[in-house]
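The aim of this short unit is practical: by the end, you should be able to scan a pair of folded records and say something sensible about each. We start with the first protein, listed as its amino acid sequence and then its structure tokens.
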Amino acid sequence: MQSRHKANYLQTTRSKVFFFTGLVVFFLGAGVLIFIPNKPKVVAVQKSQTQTVIAPAVQQKITSSMLFVGEVFWGRGIEYFANRSPLKYAFPFSGLTTDVRNKYDNWIGDLECPVTTTDIPYQTQVDHLKFNCRPEYLSEAKKWFNAFTLANNHSFDNRGTAGEAETRLNLENAGIQYFGTYDITDTPNSCEVIAMNAKLTGAVTKNIQIPIAMCGYMLVVDTVPTDAELSAIKKFSEVMPVIVMPHMGVEYRPIAEDVKVETYHRMIDAGADVVLATHPHVIQNSENYKGRLIQYSAGNFMFDQQSIGHNTTLSLGVALSVEINDQAAIKSYEEIGPTCAVFKDSCLTQIQAKIATRPKISVSYGHECFYEPNYFPKPADTATCNEILQQSTWQSATSNLSNSW
């Protein structure tokens, strides 16, 4: 009995030992598992790829500034004083300053005389109002002007079409462009594409030439053009800016007459972006018509009418600044522009082939004032300029003009 009790006791003791030993082993194993750090994950390393960064295209823009003045004439009395001056051919331009010239890429005026070597005696010019301007003055004129309108009542004064042809040739030889003609029915020659000086800015800045249509209409005294005669304006206006310089009205009146107002309105309606007129020899009023500027008469820029009175010595210069940002149009205008300096060129056809719709053109307006008491124009003083601006109703006409064409 004692030996069996002893055996049970030993068996129970062993079981307890095994049980506690198992527990110890279990907990030790669990602890080891708890404190063993996790195996790091293997991450595949990808090779970096080189990416090409394309810089955005540089946006370009075209800007061009133009100054338009009224009647230009260096015959008769101006030639008389020039011949007696040591300045000779430079005399008519001697009052102008280079700072005013350099403000604008282009100067355009109304050349109111044939430019030929066939002289008309001084007294004949006085008595019969038949004018001539000697071509020797053109080298001086070129320093200021790069285009003239020939659409006026004096362009046929010296031998008619022969004198006009010689005038064109002399202007070409001097490097001065021209547009318009005496004959209103000569519709093909009413408008001409002029290569206007401009600046192209972008990655670099450079001087270029761009196409701008100039139309001249000789309508003295108050000839009313037909719709067909004005139709040339529309076809040019579809692909480029159009500036019209008509010659019309009654002389020495300070206010435009109704028939002229109606005619110039029709020019805007036909597609003109601006109308800048001449003939009355004095400054007339200006108008905002449908957001477009009409200046009815800029007055005498260079003329020998000092004896008539103060008003015939005053002149308004109308300044236009245009900007083009359409990239496709910029490319076409830059490419075609230089070819437009030749009379009767193919610029309109070239542009029509490249541009379906005319680009938006930003525009701003300004002015210059000139005074000519001594047979040569010069910049006007402040008081005289205020008088000029008042006569031209400049402030009211320009205050609400559209800033785009």
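Turning to the second protein, read its sequence before its tokens, just as you did above.
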Amino acid sequence: MVASEIALKLTRPILFGAGAFSLLWACGQSTGPSPGSAGSLGSAAGAVAQAGATALAGTSGSATGGSVAGGGMAGGTGGAGAPAGGVAAGGSSVGGNVAVAGAAGTLGGGGAAGVAGTSAGTAGTGGAAVSTGCNGAPLCWDFEEGAIPQGFTPWRSTPSPATGELLVDNTRPYGGSKFSLHAKDLVGGPQHTLKYVLPANFGPVMWGRLRLYTTPARPMAHAGFFNARYPKPGQPDNAPENQLNWYEVASYTQAYMSIFHPPWPPGFPEDVQVSDTQLVLDKWTCVEWLFDGKNDADATQAALPKMWLDGTELAWPQHFTYSEPAGANPPFRDKVGNFTVIELGIVTWQDVPTPTSWWIDDVHIGTTRIGCQ
């Protein structure tokens, strides 16, 4: 297992561009095109913010570290080639072909309505507040525009021989929605993702949740589906990738996994936690995370990541350090000033032999717990 993991790593880095997007999106009624009029990305598609969203008070809980156990590998870290592709007829392209059904067209511009009726509440258990919908000042996306949401830009798109594509389509939307983000038929060691630069002064604590559907097989490979990055101490908020630490939620050896990474390159040593809960297949699940870069429980380091599946916190019976060469100490987890960049999509670091698809929907991030309601 170890040899195959190392042999199949991808090692070509991409640096983030400077600049930031400051528009806050709220999940709500779509102003995007109907399935018969999807086309190229134009100016911003509007979205209606949820009125009356409740912002609950309270501070985030902190994760504990645990001991580092030897053995096992989470797969090497690395960047991928520059995103390719453009806009194809009948859909919006994300580093490849995208097929939102219908004739080619242009996704027109629209306004974004404000968030109304926020109110204070009480803290939940463990110092974490829980509410439904967007709370505090988070961002959320439900892909109901039928195209890549405003502010996201293509990032990774692995070239041949790895295959697959990332698109917004109506093949498996969550709940009563119309569209979702679809990582389609990934095989080999594919990486297909989007990047979003967060608004300034996001803060050092990130709660998040997304809905995830995977079929037909649980990959043994390290398959990341969300990460958030922040500059090392002394670096500006628009620092390049090689100055950004990052937290990741993923699966590995068919189970859920979380990782703290130092900057790429080299991206390791990694602080790896692997759950004993298998990745759920053929069913929508709610995956939550807490990246606590403030960590009041430790004056020196940021906390390790925490994850929840359908409201139940995951345990981490495997906790180890991955490095090349082996034998390094765990990385020092610098405290977070502000999270600055997120990455969404699927990044695999080893071979995926069976064509596998992931759907992602109902993505929320904020500074207090959002929950799965």
